[in-house]
Amino acid sequence: MNDRISKFIEKQTCANVCCVDEKSNPYCFSCFYAFHSGKGLLYFKSSSSAHHSSIIANNRLIAGTILPDKLNTVLVKGIQFEGVVLPEEHPYGSDASGQYHKKFPMALMIPGEIWIIQINSIKMTDSAIGFGKKITWNREEIVTQD
Fold it and tell me: What's the pTM value of the predicted model, to 2 decimals?
């Protein structure tokens, strides 16, 4: 993954994620996340009873955005991503809880499951390297939805 993209994602804490239900209705939610840069994964915690959890159970394809925790309207930065929520039993899930709770230890007190988003593509806007400058990244090996 591009180093500039990876460093940006590591510094932030919140993603906005969109999923689509069986009637093709979009639904968005926000979540705190931990990032595994080597594998291009986002880990988030949520309850299995949350509305988005039931949507994702039927359609694991997602899209989302990450903006800086502290916005600077002059220096525009942010990413748009597409990916898939991996099944709970996927091998990438072996350390998902540890990674997430290392970044958010207080979340141990909150019930829920750790979910894994495999990011498959990213478009980053980074005006620090030129107004409206875009950097893209695509995963070569994609886990497809079942």
Answer: 0.89
Which single residue is written with the structure tokens 């994602």? 9
Q: Domain of 104?
A: 3-138
- The answer to the question of residue 145 being in a domain is no
- Condensed to tens digits (0 to 9), the pLDDT of residues 90-125 reads 998 888 999 999 999 999 999 999 999 999 999 999
Which residue type occupies 30? S
C-beta neighbour count of 90 within 10 angstroms:
14
Could you tell me if 135 and 127 are in contact, meaning their C-beta atoms sit under 8 angstroms apart? no
Q: How far apart, in whole angstroms, are the C-alpha atoms of residue 145 and residue 84?
A: 7
- Residue 63 inside a domain? The answer is yes
| 37 Cβ contact partners less than 8 Å away, ≥ 6 residues apart | 1, 6, 9, 10
